[in-house]
Amino acid sequence: MVEYRIDRHSGVATYVQIVQQTKQALRLGMLEPGDRLPTAREVVEATAINPNTVLKAYRELEREGLVEARRGLGTFVRKGLSITPADSPLRLELDDWAERARDAGLDRDDIAALFTAVLEKHFQGEPS
How far is residue 83's CA from residue 85's CA, in Å, rounded to a whole number? Predict the structure, then answer.
């Protein structure tokens, strides 16, 4: 099950963070079709956010066809986005790279900026 982490200082709306984190879990294969998302109550207890925010995020995911709400049962993944499993060699290489970057003295924001710059270089003009 996915555990949401809310960064109140990121400038990104809370519901968008939930949507993004859910999509990331789908891409990494951490969530698969049939899996149940945490209930709004579970997310509220873990993150201290408004239940309506969770419901808004789940509605957005449902609108995109990624999840479906089942009355009285919860919200379930309809389709995955995974193309690279969590234990793929590419992920392991990236993990090693991030560890080397951290050991070199870069902090999270530095690493994110560097990675984003490389992505931009390789995907110029392509929609995200």
Answer: 7
